[in-house]
Amino acid sequence: WQPYRHHGPSLTLEYRLRFRCDSNYYGPFCNKFCRARDDFFGHFACEPGGTKVCKEGWTGPECRE
Fold first, then answer.
1. How far apart, in whole angstroms, are the C-alpha atoms of residue 34 and residue 63?
2. Are 27 and 49 in contact (CB under 8 A)?
3. 54 has which bridge partners?
4. Tell me: the pLDDT tens digits for 6-36?
5. Read out DSSP for 11-62?
6. pTM for the whole thing?
7. Residue 18: count of CB within 10 angstroms of its CB
């Protein structure tokens, strides 16, 4: 939830917004993509923040080594 406040000449409006990212997108702007996989292209899961976590026995940026 993000709080917002707008001041006008005769009133102040206060509200909170919550943004929910689509599946496999993470971060405050939903611009970090992570889709868990276990195939030729990589062997990893995704943390709640969208960081790739290599499966056991795999290393490297895409967990292919």
1. 13
2. yes
3. 44
4. 999 999 999 999 889 999 999 988 999 999 9
5. -EEEEEE---PPTTEESTTS-EE---EEETTEEEEE-TTS-EEEPTT--TTT
6. 0.69
7. 6
